[in-house]
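Researcher: Here's a chain I'd like modeled. Treat it as a single chain, no partners, no ligands.
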Amino acid sequence: MLRVSLIIPAYNEQERIADCLRNAIIQTVPAHEILVVDNKSTDNTVQEVERVMEQYPDAPVRLLHQNAEQGLVPTRNFGFDHATGDVLGRFDADCMLRPDWVEQVSALFEHNPQAMGATGPVTYYDMPAKQFSLRSDDSVRRHTFRAEHNEVLLFGSNMAIRATAWQQIRNSVCRDEADIMHEDIDLSLHLLSADLATVYSKHMVCSISARRMDTSFSSFIAYMKRFKHTFEAHPDHRRKRKSEHVLIAAYPALHTLYPLYRKYLDHMDINPAERMWMRERINFDIDDQWFD
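Model: Modeled as a single isolated chain. Structure tokens:
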């Protein structure tokens, strides 16, 4: 199978990085390597990563430090440049991979030589109705998260890119020093401009936090404008539908529900990230080789 490197940019993620790493380690097919790229965190992110590394000494976890500049783009690029796998998986430090994520990604790229980038649907581990959320997200990404000719746009919380494709576009991706764009969409459009195909797989599933919905409406709208800014930086590309309209419409309900559900989880002393894929791990009957 193709070797899959996992790249996790991290800045002040002490609350969830340990859960994220455990989900990345305990997979049906082990990752080739798991690179946590710390970007000058001021909390205990580094200590949490080191604690997991001590707990799983045989797991291929490496802690890298990108201290040259602050920002997601340079931190992501640093991780991609240091990865040695055939496929580079990229997700956030508060994301929880489904237990067969590495297996699905490796198989996807192996069976489709034309695929240079891939993405899939997500659900929210800290919100109720997770299956409904997954089906809804799958529908949105199938029908609206696309460029002009129905090309797939990659989602940074759940994406992978072939290493050879990254080498082709690494010097052209936007630096976005003003921090006004979506780096994942920018990367997607650079792939498409280089005639490198992106694909979508409903089997490539990740669980993310809904914490973005806990921001103010003005902050959320500013974040949604990143879609517009990214496409303005790529005048050769267009899109027929705007995914942000769906997200803006869902904001009031999710903004109200998120803190209420968080209070419920805290009251019940439930770690939603730890619980998210528990049933799947049992069903997959994963041999947890790292405990041997």
